[in-house]
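Please check this today:
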Amino acid sequence: MMFKKDVLEEFLFLWSKAENIPFTNYEDALVNNYSSLDKPFTDYSKLVIGWHSPLKVEISENLLSLPPENRDLYLEYLKNRIENETMLQDDEELKDLLKTINVSIDSLNIEHNKELHDALNLSFKEITLPKDLAKFRNLHRKYYRYLLNLEREKVMRHLEKLNEYKFKQPTKTFKDELWFKVGVKLASGQMAKYYTVDSKGIMHLKYSYTAPRVAEELGDKKWEKDVLATLKNYGPESSNANKNIFNSRDKMIKIIDYCKEKGIPVISHFTDRLPPE
């Protein structure tokens, strides 16, 4: 199964590194008397916010590029990878940490919440002990993972909606078969210019026409074998006897019944060839 997965791999990589984000600036802050962060925490959060959008585009492009019978497998593959390679954040633990900066858990649902981001990027001058610095760093890490979770849930909901659709090819009926389409053209008289009728009422393909030409003029080159077998009157001994519509009573009845249902007149040269029961 060939498909693009650049955005998917990028997100799973970010998730795998969520516990080891390069928070070197915290150590720098200790040396610099907690003056400030060189790299604001929001720079890290921007890596994650909105990640679901390009992945949804990637999913759509992959679905369109895959044959219908593989689309359900692809969606199952996505679901399994995301479920198996990501871990849900403990909301209660995050809530406890957020109390240290007096931020409501509800504000996390607003992706570009200035109050929250300002709080997460407080000046280190307000931190007086190394243990507080470690606690603040832990809060940043957990908030980062919470953002990952928000994006994860958006993608999982998108996959659920896609799974509501059936990507498998619809079940075919006899009306989708080539012989039926050729048969309706033949029974309705639309093919009269391509054949002659002998004294026994048998149709014969005119010498001035070939089956490929007839099929192309009728609108589908794939009809060639059915046109040839039928207008050349292939008998039961032929390897392509099943392509001759007149060899099958069942096929002819289906064609005649369809024409009656749709109000399409059926020529006598067609009905006269109906095999006996």
Q: What stands out?
A: Residues 26-40, 108-112 have pLDDT under 50 and may be disordered. Residues 174-271 form one domain. The first strand starts at residue 195 and ends at 197. The radius of gyration is 35 Å.
